[in-house]
Hints:
Layout: H1 3-7, H2 11-20, H3 25-41, H4 53-60, H5 72-86, H6 103-109, H7 114-129, H8 139-151, H9 158-175, H10 202-217, H11 223-226
Amino acid sequence: MSMTTTSRASLANVIALISQANLSERQKQELRSAVRTVARLLDGEPANIAADPAGLRRRLEMIAPQAHGISRGRWSNIRSLLWKALGLVRPMMAGRSLQPILPAWKVLTVNLPFGRSVRLVPVLRFLSARGRAPTDVTMADLEDYREAIFNDRLRKDPEKTWDQLAWVWNWCRREVNGWPAVVIERPSRRVTYVLPWSVFPASFKHDVDSSATAGRRRPRRARSIWAFNTGPAVALRCST
Length: 240
């Protein structure tokens, strides 16, 4: 199937390709059943549902399988079979790669805490498959990995996976001698709200200014005496 055709493929096309695949009849039945089950849960006909892994992943995350009488184990199996079926239409990222990690990466990660090294294994296998040693890695390689986990597999929470990887990668850059100098930017999730003084009564600003001034000018020995009368013991921070 050409790339143009792939971009327009539907689950109906996937079902048709299953019938043509070099698989046993039982395997074909399992794949077709999984694809049709997904279409049913999405309330659509296979022909009207795009065979787009990223779009399907987002829609599947909204489904509560137990509400449809599907056990957690069966649901995991359906998603796995769907992943295999989509692989007939387009390249899909393997859920568990067996690609050997290059020796140069092993040297850098051998002494890492287990919780951090395990988060690096998938990207290191990805880079090793490309022949990228620590001295060869560029941000483009890491962006390609990000695109793959977001668009070429069905595993949920790729945003969380990428954020955890970014944190560990940047930690290694600071702490591990010889780690690539590439920095993965992590957008801040902290939301700060600042309202202009104009939304508050003028008396409120006057009280805040007076409190801050009292904290700065108060004699050190007298602070404990005035603590409950004239304001804080120290000057207020701007963020306060």
